[in-house]
Q: What sequence folds into this?
């Protein structure tokens, strides 16, 4: 639900659900060859999802400024990791500077509020779903 909320509210088309809608299979996310060529937007989403999920689960909604600092620290570590591994052997994507610009994107305070609200709404819908029923989420495509 967190992935869905982050991807929908930030308009990301290349996160987990976006990649599934583009034809990726769940097993592809475990494949080193596919993972090595994952769009940077998917990695950005992963980092934001981690921060949002932690806040949602712990009910410790940090001030927006602290949220931004946490996100920037996480994304900075990702940028450094990409730089360190740029020369490694094996399958890897070659990201342009334009591709890498997603790694500096901030989630606005309004987006964060909408993400949290959507997660809450989806969690409530899920809690009301009886055993055997399905909670269908429609992902907006390109």
A:
């Amino acid at each position: 639900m967190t992935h869905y909320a982050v991807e929908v509210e930030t308009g990301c088309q290349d996160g987990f659900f976006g990649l599934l809608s583009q034809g990726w299979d769940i097993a592809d996310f475990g494949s080193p060859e596919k993972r090595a060529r994952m769009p940077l937007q998917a990695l950005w989403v992963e980092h934001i999802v981690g921060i949002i999920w932690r806040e949602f689960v712990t009910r410790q909604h940090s001030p927006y400024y602290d949220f931004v600092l946490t996100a920037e620290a996480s994304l900075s570590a990702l940028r450094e990791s990409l730089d360190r591994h740029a020369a490694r052997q094996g399958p890897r994507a070659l990201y342009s500077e334009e591709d890498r610009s997603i790694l500096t994107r901030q989630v606005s305070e309004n987006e964060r509020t909408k993400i949290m609200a959507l997660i809450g709404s989806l969690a409530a819908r899920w809690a009301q779903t009886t055993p055997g029923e399905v909670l269908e989420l429609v992902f907006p495509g390109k």
Summary: The first helix runs from residue 2 to 10. The chain has seven helices and no strands. The CA atoms of residues 16 and 42 lie 6 Å apart. The chain has a mean pLDDT of 88.
